[in-house]
Amino acid sequence: MMIMSAVDSTFFTLNEVATVIWQAADGRTPLSEIVVSKICPEFEIDPGQAARDAEQFVSELSQHGVLMVSDHPIASAEAR
């Protein structure tokens, strides 16, 4: 999968793990849950290593304005 930053037109080519994270990033599911429920079972990776790698990936996308990181879930349209 490829994604592009609307801020600076940087392209990112995502590997299989990054694609799973990208597709699961819905604004409500914590990254830790994505790692435990989707990454670890599918790719048979150590949870600690998976969490570190996922945090690094999310941080990089956040720095490019591609992904927003928050300590709280985004309110759904129904809740507004």
Oligomeric state:
single chain
Report the span from N to C terminus: 32 Å
Q: Give the DSSP E fraction (strand runs of 2 or more residues).
A: 5-15%
Give the low-confidence spans.
Answer: none
How many β-strands, per DSSP?
2
State the major sheet.
Answer: 2 strands, antiparallel
In DSSP terms, counting alpha (H) and pi (I) runs of 4 or more, how many helices? Answer: 3
Order of helices and strands: EEHHH
Helix content: 40-55%
Describe the structure in brief.
By secondary structure, this protein is mostly helical.
Describe this structure in words.
The chain has 80 residues and is mainly α. It is built from three helices and two strands. The chain has a two-stranded antiparallel ribbon. β1 (2-4) and β2 form a beta hairpin. α1 packs antiparallel against α2 and α2 packs across α3.
Keywords:
49% helix, globular, mainly alpha, 80 residues, 8% strand
Element layout with pairings:
Blueprint: E1 2-4, E2 11-13, H1 16-24, H2 31-43, H3 47-63
Antiparallel strand pairs: 1-2
Helix pairs in contact: 1-2, 2-3
